[in-house]
Specification:
32% of the residues lie in helices and 32% in strands. The chain is of the alpha+beta class. It folds into three domains: 111 residues, Beta-Lactamase, CATH 3.30.450.20; 124 residues, Beta-Lactamase (2-Layer Sandwich), CATH 3.30.450; 109 residues, Beta-Lactamase. Strands 2-1-5-4-3 form a five-stranded antiparallel β-sheet, with helices on both faces. A hairpin with a 5-residue loop joins strand 1 and strand 2. Helix 6 crosses helix 8. The N and C termini lie far apart (130 Å).
Length: 385
């Protein structure tokens, strides 16, 4: 049996190239995948990025060095790329410069499995990168033990070693990364810091069984400014250990800032209304109480919480015609004197002032009640008569 036949029929994908990266030997398996390759250059059978990898390995490896794992993209017989995973090493020869060798086990079933796996990875990565939503994935190099208490899980999430695994370009734009900077290579804590809001975020994930939607987080842009996010989160858990957290997010910073501003304004209005000595009531067209200030309780003694949503006719008679035959509701501001019933059953003579809220649909009104001096009691009596 000839030695050439022994090497040619070896059931592996085998290529050997000289110092010029010229192929001097290819096994039958290699030829079946990429076509007859002997006497060709590696440049002719590899895609450019893979060829550059082989060039770099030729200059850095030496005989006896540990083989390097490479996923090479060959040009198949059809001209389409063919992924082959194998080992690259350098072997010495007594009569000339060292040779570069690429070896890959070749089993048809394994090859199809690898191709399917690579295709799935390519499709998934393409889906994530081209998604219209910002998507992210955090992988824990040091998995999180979820059999421990919630506080310990929260601590591990922020302190265990982790990395971005797959963040798409839209997420990088949301976080304001400069062109050319890969978010996947940046520290997770740089954009997802440990703070009270994010500890609450992780607690919500734990409480939900590690699958939850619309959970807020407080993150940092690349420039260090704060941004508020809303996340849909899923997880990968293996044998009681959290391996990955992943999901999609939405920037709700503007809405959050507006909400905070409105909350501050409402608080300011509430403080102002609380300082006004007059009883201020907001009612609807059906005379139901919607809101009151503190003076409603101080002046009249009624419990505001129990009276909200109830008709105030039992306190203030709004249905009695006003001077000039007017009614309490209307486009114009109304002012009159009336008797107001306190919780103790006493009558308190007050000046009533009512104004509609808004300019179009008259559904809500503001009613203020101010006690009047004794000399004005006659007005209340006239109003009641």
């Amino acid at each position: 049996m000839h030695d050439e036949y022994v090497f040619e029929t070896v059931p592996v994908f085998l290529l050997v190239a000289d110092e010029n990266l010229q192929i001097i030997f290819s096994s039958r398996v290699a030829d079946s995948v990429i076509g007859p390759a002997e006497c060709c250059s590696l440049r002719d059978v590899l895609e450019s990025t893979s060829f550059e990898t082989f060039e770099e390995l030729q200059s850095t490896l030496w005989p006896g060095a540990a083989p390097v794992h490479v996923l090479a993209s060959f040009l198949g017989r059809s001209g389409l790329p063919k992924k082959v995973a194998g080992l690259v090493d350098v072997v010495a020869r007594p009569d000339g410069p060292p040779l570069l060798r690429f070896t890959a086990a070749h089993d048809v079933r394994c090859a199809h499995w690898l191709e399917d796996l690579l295709l799935s990875e390519e499709v998934l990565r393409g889906f994530v990168q081209n998604s219209s939503e910002a998507m992210w994935c955090i992988e824990f190099v040091d998995p999180v033990d979820i059999s421990l208490g919630d506080l310990e899980i929260v601590r591990q999430v922020f302190e265990n070693e982790c990395r971005w695994l797959l963040c798409n370009e839209l997420m990088a734009r949301l976080y304001g990364l400069p062109e050319g900077l890969d978010l996947n290579l940046q520290p997770v804590s740089m954009y997802f810091p440990r703070n009270p809001e994010n500890e609450a975020f992780v607690s919500k994930i734990i409480e939900s069984g590690f699958s939850v939607d619309n959970v807020p987080s407080s993150d940092f842009r690349h420039d260090g400014s704060v941004m508020y996010m809303e996340n849909d989160v899923r997880s990968t858990i293996v044998n009681g250990y959290l391996i990955r957290l992943w999901g999609k997010l939405r920037d709700v910073t503007e809405a959050r800032l507006l909400q905070n501003r409105l909350r501050r304004e409402m608080e300011a209005v509430r403080n102002i209304l609380s300082a006004i000595p007059d009883a201020i009531l907001v009612i609807d067209r059906n005379r139901c109480l919607i809101a009151v200030n503190q003076s409603f309780e101080t002046m009249l003694g009624w419990n505001s919480e129990t009276f909200l949503g109830r008709d105030i006719q039992s306190i203030v008679d709004l249905e009695r015609p006003l001077p000039g035959g007017r009614r309490w509701y209307g486009f114009d501001q109304q002012r009159w004197h009336t008797s107001v019933k306190t919780k103790s059953g006493a009558s308190l003579c007050c000046e009533a002032l009512i104004s509609p809220i808004g300019d179009e649909v008259l559904d809500h009104f503001v009613l203020s009640l101010r006690p009047v001096s004794n000399q004005d009691d006659s007005c209340c009596q006239e109003s009641a008569s």
